[in-house]
Fold each of these.
Amino acid sequence: MFKLLASVVCAVLYGSLVATAPLGDMSLSLSSSASSEAVSTSTTGDPSLPSPTVAYASDDPNYWLWNETTRTDPQAERGKLGASILGPQNVPIDKQNPDILAPPTTDSGTVGNAKWPFSLSKMQLQTGGWVRQQNIQQMPIATAMAGVNMRLEAGAIRELHWHQTAEASWAYVLNGSTQITSVDRNGRNYVATVNKGDLWYFPPGIPHSLQATNDNPDGTEFLLIFPDGQFNDDDTLLLTDWLAHTPKEVIAKNFQDNIADWDDIPGSQLYIFPGVPPPDNQEPPTSPFGTVPEPFSFEFSKVVPTQYSGGSAKIADSTVFNVSTQIAVAEVTVEPGAMRELHWHPTQNEWGFYLEGTARVTIFAGTGIAQTFDYQPGDISYVPTAYGHYVENTGNTTLRFLEIFNSDKFEDVSLAQWLALTPPKLVQEHLQLSNNTIAHFNNTKDRVVGPKKTSS
């Protein structure tokens, strides 16, 4: 009786499983002979490969569906999935984010918000310029780095200041030129004019100033990076703020002057204020201790990029910009139809900044979690350490962006190179690829991959 009852229950359960299983999963319920038949019809055509233990990955197309230049009405629809939006809709934002509104079917779960447009950061307007920032308040995922975008009119000064002990200061000049000054802990000084596309770096605790030259009549604009996601530019230690909160008799005693000599010092911080544009060839006062042994600026704009099949890349880290021991950068260009290859950074978080063009990035976080984001000029991206990703050009112009790392050296691992240098049989057993496909894997890093060449 019990055997009969068990047989009936098993039959019912098996029947309901077959009736409700998706069509793509039916191969998992077949006998071993049927599974072998499924393998024989796979792309490899090699019956010696093992039977699949899971269903094959979907061939559904997952291209981006629109961009800002198309006339497509952005809706939460991809193929037969989703439905139109009936309520209020912010169409300009949806046009910028097709892979958020209608995600690829390969997306699963969320990795946290990995996009922040600087346009959404509050501006602090000053006499002579402005500043805005991004830290973990705007982008909680970005725990390792924070960014500041600053603009100074010609002659305007970001006043003499320094940052808290652990915070180095790194910068990329977006436009114009900026004169930097500094004195290190040993009394060695440094003055330089840093031009568009060039870098500067101040080690932790080193005082410095920033001033726009008039090489560009509009002044200068630059991007600042700090290796701490909690950095807040409002917490900077400023010369005028310190002296405004120090008794004048103490100041006079310190400098061996009369109190009257200090009558006109500001009663509060200046932060950014107008000034006279400095000459590009300005020399610092002669120090008895000389100048800093390693320059605090680097002519990154003069570095010749390495060319790849789909674009270019150039790198500045401590191997070439020796003083920059906490920040490394790669400036990457991706031509239309090309992509920054599938890769990851083994020990580094990546803070990205988009300079030109449009892109999409899928971030793979493991455990079946992946999410795709779209980027425009002025947007910030963030990829946590070891998360797999790519950067694809979604426009018809050259894409240019910065990859910035809280590290002394730039490092990445290429998926294609890894598989090319792994025993082919092992790769085949994982992915069921043909020998011919594996033989074409690139065993050198093609960091920017061009469109597939079509045979004529």
Amino acid sequence: MKHPPHPKNLSSDDGAAVSSSEAVIPMTSSMASSSQSHRVLPIEKPSVAVEDHSRDAGVAASCVFASTTASESVVVERRSDYSALCKWTIANFPRIKSRALWSKYFEVGGFDCRLLIYPKGDSQALPGYLSIYLQIMDPRNTASSKWDCFASYRLAIENPSDSSKSVHRDSWHRFSSKKKSHGWCDFASLNSLLDPKLGFLHSSNDCILITADILILHESFSFSRDNYDLQSNNVSIVGGGGIMGQVGGDVLSGKFTWRVHNFSLFKEMIKAQKIMSPVFPAGECNLRISVYQSAVNGVEYLSMCLESKDTEKNALMSDKSCWCLFRMSVLNQKPGGGSNHIHRDSYGRFVADNKGGDNTSLGWNDYMKMADFVGPESGFLVDGHSSF
């Protein structure tokens, strides 16, 4: 199944309208393995931007790091509560000696955001390359708090003399208390940026302009175990962000509903990228819903898949798997529109990775036509909201 490209995540991880999709999951790890139905296609695991582990680990600032100074400025253009364009100007860029620079914090979607650059590259960069990362933090700033948010973003180094030569890269990521930084270790060649003939440096004070265009997903979810799940301890969980509360025991049967409250903001984004739900438990695995747009035989479709996603990367977790019967749904939000929900059913074995030939993701490129999904009278996208 062709899948939009995705940034590379070195540590484990990664809708604007009310996109509510139900995943009904009767399952057990002891069930025999079986191939999926012909309508369910394996999805290639995307890979490009990376996480900055040193910052996620909470490395304290030292003499080799510097925050924003008087020679720098940050201007934020707010398009909505969940969308903003940050413009970070750094003066005297060729003479910077610090290993890393942070911008000032700016708020998007209730989260604190800032940019982080390594002018001469971080420890993962190729020689001669500049590294840039987006960092998102919970404004509560407490070590014990768990939080999670999905963001689509574009980082760019602008060329004021010729905008067509600006360097920009796009990505998406689910940021969390453990994975706060995401970006590119080899963002751009430092020699190119410093070459006065190429026009990246402003002639007045040798400054460069770095921009970040950020969209934050406004989402909520609910998760419930079926009554006949014998290991059912926590019957239901409701969340307003991306963090799933503690669930006792393996979940053998249940329902996860994901509501996207600003899906309309992401309608263009999903043509090249995807939005991903928070992770929820299923047997020995953790799963999530992914939604994006695909062209099939010249027709634009809403695509939807179920992906395995382990929250911890280690040898023990990589061996875990679950055989799963599942239903994926797009919910109709019109009053009394329950009979108009769209459902598709399938099955397959999910694993942490596909080294053994099993699936990390299953779903449909042609789940439903985009025209039917976004149609004003259809009831699937209402006031920018959608539910899966």
Amino acid sequence: MACLVAGSAAAAGFGLPAANAGSGTEPPPSGSAAKPGAPAPAPQARALVLVVGQGPILVPPSRSVVLQCSPRGGGTHPRTQEACSLLQPVSGDLQRIKPPRLLVCSAEYQPVTVSSVGVWDDHFVLSLRTFTNNCELTKTLGAVTAF
């Protein structure tokens, strides 16, 4: 399953609220320049629940963790800073993380599946990705699934 972000057509098909849903009376977006003396905007939420399961489905899960990247690092993930650094350029979407080309894994088929659900920059995020084996999972997601 690809990443679903609230407000997208795919998210609407799952009954998820649009990112800017409301009465239509919201004020127009303000300019990017901050007003002098105005407080800095609050950091946007970035938190995911990650679940790994052996096989092509997640049931039963073999391990899970909470990763909180913002407003401050936290959760139960042992390598929060590294995992958040890998997820930041892809907006928390596991599908968009590409494996390094120089690492090679064996071709054995022992599938492992990882899912993430949570919020990234205040948008709902849901990702599901299955890898051929643990080597492919580790090669691609690195610190994200190092728990």
Amino acid sequence: MSEGPTDEKTGIDFTEVDYFINEYSGQNAYEGLLLLKDDSNKDDVGLNYRLANACYILANCSKEWEQRKAYLLEGYGYIKTAYANEPTNTEVLHWAPIITGSLSENCTATKERIQFGHEFKKYIDQAISLLPPEFALLHMRGRFRYEVASLSFVERNLAMLFFGTPPSASYKEALEDLLAAENMDPGAIDNMLYIGKTYHALGDAKNARKWLTKVTKKESCDCVDTEQIEEAHTLLGKLPSPTPEELADDSDCDTAEGIGGEESD
């Protein structure tokens, strides 16, 4: 996503940087942005949300958890600066929930994970209320609803410290968002993985197997994709063996039509 290659306020030309971002070349985008940054434009919204974007790409391409979290924390600082200056900017609204949601998922401490989850909830609600429907927003809310529905009793009580009341969401609500996202942009590894995980949580082994199998047939483009494909393989190994009826069903559709798992061929 981009608002244009040249910032009208500062005159910064982002043409080359946007090319690198669109090519998923995080390191080149990151280095190019740092070369453009100085004391006169360090608070520029376009510069900061692009830096957050570049850090997100670098995090996804990092094998080591510590490095991945470090990039996300750096990106978090950039998107916080952008949000403080222009909280209704379309790109800021897009990247604020992505960065905070990714941080929440990459934190090992429960308290830290819930803190970022609370901030994510604020950003995603604002983005969905102000922006047109899009894949990323529905997918992120679906993932969040899945995680909330999966909270343990202890985690739910701890969340009360930040939310005031325990966050509430169901697997059915998560599935609604994830299937809606799938209809908008079919085939994303992370979305199909969470559809499979949600069906699994709902006790629907047949549809869980269908969506997790789709994930295992995809090719990764970064380290996060690789981990998610591996997770799909692991989850498939935990599912009960398919019934003879399932084995006879050779449908392999790529779109989702409804929560009941009825997909068009």
